[in-house]
Amino acid sequence: MKQIITAIVVLLLPGLLSAAEPQILKLKIEGMTCGMCEAKVKKQLSSVCVTSSADSKKGEGTCVPKAGVTPEQILQEANKTGFKTSKLN
Ligand SMILES: [Cu+2]
Predict the structure, then answer these.
(1) pLDDT, tens digit, 9 for 90 and up, residues 32-45
(2) Number of H helices, E strands in the chain
(3) Distance, CA 46 to ligand 1 centroid (Å)?
(4) What spacing in Å lies between the alpha carbon of 39 and ligand 1's midpoint?
(5) I need a surface site. Which of 7, 50, 63, 75 has the fewest CB within 10 A?
(6) Domains of the chain as residue ranges with CATH
(7) CA 19 to ligand 1 center in whole angstroms
(8) pLDDT digits over 41-70, tens only?
C-alpha cells in the first residue's frame, strides 16, 4: 500500500510543481533611458502581468503573466509603449 502511494506521489509531483510555479517571462526592451520609461512599460504591462519589472540600464524586463495570457499578448502590450520588445526566454 505504501508503495502505491509513493508511486502516485512521484507521478503527480512534477505536474503539481509546474502548476504552482508561475513562469516568468524575460523580455528584451529596447530604447528605455530612465525611470519614467520603466514606469511606462510597467504600467502598460499591468493589464497582462501579475507582476512586472523593467530595467532601463539593462534594457530588460520581466513579467509573470496573468492566467490565460500568452507571451504574444504580453509582447503586443509592451510594444504599445513604443519600446521594441522581444522575448529573451
Ligand atoms: Cu525615460
Answers:
(1) 999 999 999 999 99
(2) 3, 4
(3) 18
(4) 8
(5) 7
(6) 22-87 (3.30.70.100)
(7) 36
(8) 999 999 999 999 999 999 999 999 999 999
